[in-house]
C-alpha cells in the first residue's frame, strides 16, 4: 500500500436533485453548466456556451489534432469514442478544485454528466475503463485519492491502455529503456537506493551511478509542498515507489517532481 497523501474525497451522492449540488469531492466548487457539442479527444470537449473544457486530473491517449508530425498515441481513437458516448449531447456541470483556466483559456474542471441512470463523473469513468491515466499539477490537486482508485481499478482489470506496451509501467533500474522514452509521460517503479538533499534540490537515485541511472529530482517549490504535507523525502531511501512524470535527460534519464502526489509508496 502506498502512503495516503491525498485530500478526503466522497463518493457521488445517490440523490442528484440538481447538478450544481453534486459535491462528490468536498474540495470542489461548482461551476457553469452547458451541453457538450463537440469532442476533441479523450480529455477535451466543447460546450454550447463556447467554453472548451480540459478534464483536469487525467491524461487520455493523445491525438494529433492538427499538429504536424505528431503521431497518435495507441488507443487515442478509442478514448475519444468512449467520451463521445458518455458526454456528447449531454448536460455537463463543471466543478473546480484548483486553477480554473490554462494558458489556452480552457476550463480545467472535473465534470459530472446528468446521465439517465444517475450522475456520471467523467474522469472516473475514463480511468476505470482504462482509457486515461492520472495526471496532476501542483495547482490542481483535488480529488486525487478517488482518481488513483479509479485508475487502479482499470489497471487491475487490464482494460484499455493497460494491455498496451506503450503504457507499460517502466523499471527504474533500467535507464536505457527510459532514455528511449525521452519526452514521454511515464509511470516508473523501483527501489530508491539513495535519497539526498543537495543545493536546494532533492535527488532520489535508482542506481549507484547517478550520472547514468534514473533519478527523480524535486526542486525548491516542490520541496516546500512536500514539507507542508509532512512528507519525509529522505525517508524514501530503500523504499519501493512509483513515480509519474515526463522523462527528460540530464546525467541520465530523470523525472522532475513538483508535488507529492506524483509519488506512490509501494513498499
- The overall number of domains is 2
Order of helix and strand elements from N to C terminus: EEEEHEEEHEHEHEEEEHEEE
Biggest sheet: strands, sense, closure? 8 strands, mixed
CATH topology of the largest domain, anyone?
A: OB fold (Dihydrolipoamide Acetyltransferase, E2P)
Oligomer: single chain
CATH architecture of the largest domain: Beta Barrel
Contiguous runs where pLDDT drops below 50 for at least 5 residues: 1-23
Gross morphology is globular
* Beta-strand proportion: 25-35%
Query: Structural class per helix/strand content?
Result: alpha+beta
Cα separation of the termini: 7 Å
Whole-number mean pLDDT: 89
Q: What is the rounded Rg?
A: 19 Å
What proportion of the residues is helical, as a percent range?
10-25%
Could you name the CATH class of the largest domain?
Mainly Beta
Please provide the count of β strands: 16
Number of helices: 5
